[in-house]
UniProtKB/TrEMBL annotation:
It is an enzyme of class 3 (hydrolase). It comes from the Bacteria. The lineage of its organism: Bacteria, Pseudomonadati, Bacteroidota, Cytophagia, Cytophagales. It catalyses: ATP + H2O = AMP + diphosphate + H(+). It holds the Pfam family MazG. Belongs to the nucleoside triphosphate pyrophosphohydrolase family. CDD domains: NTP-PPase_MazG_Cterm, NTP-PPase_MazG_Nterm. This is Nucleoside triphosphate pyrophosphohydrolase. Its EC number is 3.6.1.8. Residues 44-120, 192-255 form the NTP pyrophosphohydrolase MazG-like domain. One of its GO terms (biological process) is UTP catabolic process. InterPro entries: MazG-like_dom, NTP-PPase_MazG-like_C, NTP-PPase_MazG-like_N, NTP_PyrPHydrolase_MazG.
Length: 290
């Protein structure tokens, strides 16, 4: 079945000359021109583009999270174009040293997707999202094992520089992919409460105003365990904790900006206001769905 499906896919590719393929070819031509004739583009390296790419991905993320659905979609389109440019740029630079080119990049990801979706291109059965994810992680681990005699960790592909919250999500997803997971959501919540108890073993709460850490290192370790457990519980609820936290960040900023604006209208300065005064504006912001 895999051969038939793959041959069908190849036939569709050969017979297709659509607007998207023409547009992509146009981008490749533009990249060739820029790399040859533009002083700035000629100077760029894989390393010099790295931080710019990170910035572009964050800008894409901002566009996706934008509340302005109408203009937001146009921003998403624009930022996707910028990210696409970077992918082509990296491939162009690598082609100049005969390491790889855009064809190698695209064929590589196509082969990976075909191989890791045996329920589509072979006779493996995977009827649920969970089964698909388990197959993906299992095949990925097999690929790594076959390419090197050295035992490789399940988590080797998790970027070390990835933000800790996102990294925790990926670690838990990968562990679940090989069956290392909790059976029940209630057990996960019990773990959250257990970690909370262990955290407060290292905090002096005798003074309601100031809670003092009695052992900084242990408190930090337990706080990390508590966060990890909360992220795990969110996964069991089907909540993406990164998205949830970002929504809260934006909500807080929106309400505080409302507070600042309304206080300014009333001739008040934030730095001169009491907490009670600020709280009154804050409650007003909540009522206005800020």
């Amino acid at each position: 079945m895999q051969k038939t499906k793959s041959e069908s896919l190849l036939k569709r590719v050969k017979e297709t000359q659509t607007e998207p393929t023409k547009a992509f070819q146009r981008l490749l031509f533009v990249m060739d021109d820029l790399r040859q004739n533009c002083p700035w583009d000629k100077k760029q390296t894989l390393e010099s583009l790295r931080y710019l790419t990170i910035e572009e991905v964050y800008e894409l993320s901002d566009a996706i999270l934008s509340k302005d659905n109408r203009n937001g979609k146009q921003e998403i389109k624009k930022e996707l174009g910028d990210v696409m440019l970077h992918l082509v740029f990296y491939s162009k630079i690598a082609s100049e040293t005969n390491d790889f080119d855009i064809t190698d990049v695209l064929n590589s990801v196509c082969e990976k997707l075909i191989h890791r979706h045996p329920h589509i291109y072979s006779n493996i059965i995977a009827e649920t999202e969970a089964e698909v994810k388990q197959n993906w992680e299992r095949i990925k681990l097999e690929e790594k094992s076959s390419s090197d005699t050295k035992i490789k960790s399940l988590f080797e592909g998790v970027p070390k520089s990835m933000p800790a919250l996102v990294k925790a999500i990926r670690i838990q997803q990968k562990a679940r992919g090989v069956g290392f997971d909790w059976d029940k959501a209630s057990d996960v919540w019990d773990k959250v409460k257990e970690e909370e108890t262990e955290l407060f073993e290292h905090i002096d709460t005798s003074d309601d105003t100031i809670h003092k850490v009695t052992n900084q290192e242990e408190a930090e370790n337990e706080f990390g365990d508590l966060l990890f457990s909360m992220i795990n519980y969110a996964r069991f609820l089907g909540i993406n904790p990164e998205n949830a936290l970002e929504k809260t960040n934006r909500k807080f900023i929106s309400r505080f900006e409302f507070l600042e604006t309304e206080a300014h209208k009333d001739g008040k300065k934030i730095e001169n206001m009491t907490l009670a005064e600020m709280e009154a504006y804050w409650q007003k912001a909540k009522k206005n769905n800020q």
